[in-house]
Design goal:
Helices cover 40% and strands 21% of the residues. It is an alpha/beta fold and 255 residues long. It has a single domain, classed as Rossmann fold (3-Layer(aba) Sandwich), CATH 3.40.50.150.
């Protein structure tokens, strides 16, 4: 086992600060995971996702419980590699890690972070668009951390089918998502609490507004119940919620 720091133990002051929406934009375009976002992504998610470090710790602990020797662990939408690094501290070194992301800029940042973390296990970083053909093979753990919500709804069942078909028996899918509340009044409250959190993390009203507009047609959340039903429809037999904070949730699904 490796003794690497968990994500929440990283000093936030060392991260490049997220100022993507700090200046007024006359016409806000759809959110993209390009070079500008990749350069500040770690700060962005730490300030934008509630209890992000604790979620990463929980993902790593669950991955360690379900990872099987001689299999692969996948991180679909691996971004800058935070989840891979977190899992590396707990998962046996006899297991290969595979990170998949569409953004070349994210993969470059991820590769640099893995080298800085002295990643010694076998690993592979794959450039692939999940909307198109991608492969999952001999997987005992597959992580979709804040990834499925960016996939067009019409494609989500197909992607989950690809995942489960490429998993060994007893394998686990770990799904972290932004979600809608089951009831509309609560949903409005949850969004209000979420923006209050972003204000506490020093995002301005303009930054909050412009990012919301940029994500409007890109991030399409489901209800927690809808995600659970989709996982059951795909063929997962055991589905359990292991994290919930207002409009964010995390599920583990076992094949």
């Amino acid at each position: 086992m490796n003794s690497k720091a968990h994500p929440e133990e990283i000093n936030d002051s060392k991260l490049n600060q997220d100022k993507v929406f700090n200046d007024e934009i006359k016409k806000v375009s759809d959110f993209k995971f390009g070079a500008k976002v990749a350069s500040v992504f770690d700060d962005m998610v730490n300030r934008s996702v509630p209890m992000y470090g604790e979620i990463q710790r929980m993902v790593a602990e669950l991955a360690a419980d379900y990872a099987q020797t001689g299999t692969n662990v996948y991180d679909l939408g691996c971004s800058t590699g935070t989840t891979l690094i977190g899992m590396n501290s707990l998962v046996s070194e006899e297991i290969k890690f595979i990170g998949v992301d569409e953004s070349e800029e994210m993969l470059e940042k991820c590769n640099n972070k893995l080298k800085q973390a002295r990643f010694s296990r076998p690993y592979e970083l794959v450039s692939a668009d999940l909307h198109k053909d991608f492969r999952v093979e001999n997987a005992s753990v597959v992580v979709l951390c804040l990834t499925l919500q960016f996939i067009r709804p019409i494609e989500r069942e197909r992607i989950l089918k690809t995942v489960i078909d490429g998993m060994v028996e007893g394998g686990a899918l770990i799904l972290v998502e932004k979600v809608l509340a089951e009831e509309s009044t609560l949903n409005r409250n949850y969004i209000k609490y979420y923006y209050d959190m972003k204000r506490r993390h020093n995002y301005s009203e303009m930054e909050i507004s412009q990012k919301r507009e940029a994500l409007e047609n890109v991030l399409i959340p489901y209800k927690l119940s809808e995600n659970s039903l989709l996982l059951k429809k795909t063929g997962f037999t055991t589905i359990e919620t292991f994290f919930k904070w207002y409009n964010f949730s995390a599920l583990i699904a076992i094949k």
